[in-house]
Write a structure and sequence with these properties.
CATH architecture: Orthogonal Bundle
Radius of gyration: 21 Å
CATH topology: Arc Repressor Mutant, subunit A
Oligomer: single chain
Order of helices and strands: EEHHHHH
Largest sheet: 2 strands, antiparallel
Strand content: under 5%
Number of domains: 1
Number of helices: 5
Number of strands: 2
Distance between the termini: 57 Å
Helix content: 25-40%
Structural class: mainly alpha
CATH class: Mainly Alpha
Strand order of the largest sheet: 1-2
Amino acid sequence: MRVICRCEDIDEEEVLRAIREGYTDLESLKRHLRIGIGPCQGRTCMPLLIRILARETGRRPEEIAPTTFRPPVKPIPLGVLADRPGESENAGRAGDAEGDADHGTEDEPEGGGGR
């Protein structure tokens, strides 16, 4: 069993089964198998999927249309997605003693209270 998409735990047999069921273009395979939507966003699995699809449908890889990239409808700051308010201000400082020293306490509001 060869894993094609590690993010969604999809193996080659699942891909082959989907192609036999009629999912013969990249977009429909992606939607059916949920492949390419994990943390890697298809960087690892899409080239593999394209090669398998080309082999099984008798096409060349360059003949297979790429999937549609869909960014968020409205750009949002990464801090909105973070666990805590102001988290995006400390981005890239994980593990830094100064950056981790104060994320706000009962006594002092986050951000150091005017330091």
